[in-house]
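Honest question from a wet-lab person: if I give you the sequences of every part of a complex, can you actually get the arrangement of the whole thing, not just the pieces? Trying it with mine:
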Amino acid sequence: SAQLAGFMGDCTAVTPVLDLAGIFVFALSGALQGARKKFDVIGMAVLAFFTSVGGGVIRDLFIGVQPAAFRDAGYLLVPVAATVIAFFWHPQVERAMPGVLVFDAAGLGLFCAVGTAKALYYGLAPLHAVFLGVCTAVGGGVIRDILSGERPTLLYDRQLYAVPAMLGSTAMAVLYALDVRGFVATLSSAVLAFAFRILAMRYGWRAPLARGMN
Amino acid sequence: SAQLAGFMGDCTAVTPVLDLAGIFVFALSGALQGARKKFDVIGMAVLAFFTSVGGGVIRDLFIGVQPAAFRDAGYLLVPVAATVIAFFWHPQVERAMPGVLVFDAAGLGLFCAVGTAKALYYGLAPLHAVFLGVCTAVGGGVIRDILSGERPTLLYDRQLYAVPAMLGSTAMAVLYALDVRGFVATLSSAVLAFAFRILAMRYGWRAPLARGMN
Amino acid sequence: SAQLAGFMGDCTAVTPVLDLAGIFVFALSGALQGARKKFDVIGMAVLAFFTSVGGGVIRDLFIGVQPAAFRDAGYLLVPVAATVIAFFWHPQVERAMPGVLVFDAAGLGLFCAVGTAKALYYGLAPLHAVFLGVCTAVGGGVIRDILSGERPTLLYDRQLYAVPAMLGSTAMAVLYALDVRGFVATLSSAVLAFAFRILAMRYGWRAPLARGMN
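Yes, you can. This is the full assembly:
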């Protein structure tokens, strides 16, 4: 809505492009997982769609508003484009995957920041806004794994994936409380989450198992 | 609502009956899958309910309205009836299953048409309305498979199931844009999807895998 | 909301505490399942959260209101506390599990009563209110199992778990129709479901399979 765009401040000129870029990367990872599991083109498209916009859909349902994904053509057309690319060039994209992980980290950062901002805008408390920011960032991957018939990797692979999202969401909520909003807040929160995610991958930081397990 | 019924035009006299018939067939397929997997009567009832009304519930949540399934007694009682039938006569119903597939195709056609119409009525763009029409038609089966602990057949079995729904939904959106509404639009869109689905089964048409896979 | 609290009558002083107690027990069972499956601390927290508040979230989405879980800090902090306890002391909690089953039965009773009351308050018909009461009570466990990559035990383990919830929800709807509301109605419905659940466990009552199966 115009009001929400106003709240997002000067980020409106840049964020939609970044947003669709993040959706594209997540959609590509969904479509590729479909190809890897020998799903047909319909299965690839379903995974592309829900991996990329699923987190935002969950966030919006939890906020209690109509999911943005069903208001804007880009949220449907970008996953379709990612499906077409994965359909024809999946071997090439797979080879580029280590590079894609950097873009995935960028998408993670952006989604947690934007998700938190939207929840705050709709009047949720900071604690819940942080939670919904994390849901926005990691929800699509969980849905992708469930639709693929797998346990969600988020829950057991011990990678720090939700943790950087928590960090970025918390930064966004703190900046919001300090009246720093718009593009500056979004970008700095996203960069924080992105940087932490890259460091976690680079140095193999791991989430702990329950005490006494390994 | 009365307004929605008015929009649906002269279909109001016929569609509810067809709608409950479609729900009955989908519920039967859910309850039978429960029996086949040796689920107990509760499991059969849960599958019957979500297979039949799950697609519509998803559509309504994505539109942002209260799911119709929780307004009308038929949406609960018809799955209960299907569960009772499957509980006592599942071997007989299984033997009749090839015939049931024809009814399933009819349900698919009806649900995509009705789902698209409802989304258009609530002001969604044609592109999103078509998407939600397809969700209405195929969503229940996906939920059934996930609840059963299986990968959704929709994603990998290469049958044309979502594709006929897309065709019917698109027809509905085009007719709506041409101001052809009500029963005529619903029926012709549903018949189109139904006919395509029957032909796809008859001739074994298959959805493609990603290039180079087989 | 204040209005809803008013409707709940004199139960407002007691129910929130019971409610959080029920959430704690459900969250503990989720976090423990995470530890058992060697999920990391993130996976344990996700299971703790959705096991405990998932049923209520589903209920609220189906009613068409913003889920209460995103309004009240307790719904997030209690699952976090349960995760911390399960993280450090899971062997001790596992040993206490038979005792925990009694609390789980109490949570089941409370959730079905409260869930039914909320649906009735929002104007749903008794039939649907009973259905949503059962969803409130059993939905979290189904989500826990799906997130864990398992078939929902609710559907096949033949234990009477949904049936006591049905009984308690029905009692709540009947009392509501008789104008018995507030704490008395909540408590007596919850106790009925609880007692039936305990008896079902004690005597090994089982849900039937489809005729001819065993």
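Two things worth pointing out. Residues 97-121 of chain A form the longest helix (25 residues). Chain A touches chain C through 31 residues (CB under 8 Å).
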